[in-house]
């Protein structure tokens, strides 16, 4: 292994990936990777040099389907023609493993994961590897987006026993579902610096048949240690940690990791992490008269601007890709996830509220335009993702980014029109190439293209401001803006003729809840009813297709069927904690945007169900899954990290505070306190791991504002006061419309609303804190002054 850096995990010595291989583009956090080559176990394996290299050439896929053909998940269906005897996660597979005394090979991924595609092509379509998996193991496929409980339980093991985690995740289990070897992506063959999947399978088979007893003991010991380490409980703590200390430490940790030049909070790769930006905006509001407050605002706005100018944003079709492989936000990992679009549109809307700069509102509107066009079911639901891989031309093998990249020749042919008034001969194509940094050789470095798929290609990324581009060619700024938009529209129309990336048409309750928030918040901030209508359609879809009236439970998934229909798995996959938490958040945001109390009523009922199914009455906080649904899993976890998506416990803390503000129910405030106390040690040690929960901690310490508008919902003066509230960044508030009906839902929840009156028959606002209300206000400008205090 000369020349390769080796690393050791649990007695297993393996070299790191060679430069240019999978490790060159790994994710920045364990929750977000999908290009890892890691293994953790107690099974000795040789790394494999030239002498042990085995030919595992890929064969033509079998035409006979395996049992995954009966599944609904797009990810599982992608593997339905592998020459592997795949099982879905379930009792049939577990019974077979016990009966035949075979280890379980668990493969977890998702349908738009690039390295999941690679492992399928290289290994799971290979006849010899398929025989090994079918004869010596019980092979199980799991869509991590369908079963986040399975994913989180075994990812905890992989992270604890190897150098990291990611997808595809590969874990070997005993027939009783205890993990004993874990890893991520494996190449099919051994190399000088890497161990191949075939070798791993043969070594594990050997150990299982010849040395099982110590292997099982190690598995039990590791599982017991993980159980102890993953426990999150209040213990003797009755109160949450210090707000001032925790928020200050979280800010300092983010300040120390901020990239001054390009924004973001890591070197590379860089993820959007909207939860961090949300914390910084909240921190700015609480400390806006201090230097740290100004710094927090600057970091968040700068990061959002650099992301929007970078290649992580699709400048042609809008929306954001999953992450950037470099610190400049230039070359992305091209898949587009619904949860990113949902959270980023809220972040850009908040940036507009804070700065007044329409740059941010335009980005938010662009995201929603993309979602409405590409990720929306005609019944109102939202699809999960679009793949980053697609064929450059029909009939060709898919390549990463093929749909999104451009050559100089293509752009010149599509945009040959001369630009009038320029100080030198100039075509529209040349103007666009200058502004977005396109070059003849391509603007993607070889280090970012390990497979050589993007040679000569360009990712559009803003290189100059509109002012600089205009000055360079002696043009007016608005003329340049119009010309560039015209050019991008022509590229968009041309791109329609390319083979499209795969669409994951699975619909998840959690991500749909986030998207309802995205449309509702942005529509309210911008005063655009059509966006709020999209949020209403999304909520109606959830209630019609993902809610079981009889049990009051949410379903986790549904799927786009033929002819615009909606299909479900049988039996249904019931919702997890994040489904309830994110949908409740979406409904609360939708109530404030639409003032339709039916959404608030449904949110209260879902919160009651969430409390019944997931609340830990002994330790505080919520488990990620129901006890019955996760039966057999080695761990029942409470998610303790805000990553690409916020932790469901973090979101729940905010929901409980808001629900208390809407109803006055003390039980929800008590639960919020218990939840924050349960996570206090985690927040105290590494607050930057839970910025959304730290934000909830700060909101709990502050006094929540109840902003009450008394008026006719359809009257202009009522709408003016509502829009005034929506235009201001006030994260720690509830907005209530009191229409004068003493029997209304909110009047029954909050009896003090019956005492508030309109002033001289005009729409009137009251700002209430600690059961005390301000003097009545009828003018939006006066309300604005009060809310800015």
From TrEMBL:
Gene3D superfamilies: 1.50.10.10, Glutaredoxin (3.40.30.10). One of its GO terms (cellular component) is extracellular region. Its main location: secreted. Residues 52-63 have a biased composition (Polar residues). Residues 65-226 form the Spermatogenesis-associated protein 20-like TRX domain. Keywords: Developmental protein, Differentiation, Secreted, Spermatogenesis. One of its GO terms (biological process) is carbohydrate metabolic process. Residues 17-68 are annotated as: Disordered. It comes from the Eukaryota. It is found in: Secreted. May play a role in fertility regulation. This is Spermatogenesis-associated protein 20. It comes from Monodon monoceros. The lineage of its organism: Eukaryota, Metazoa, Chordata, Craniata, Vertebrata.
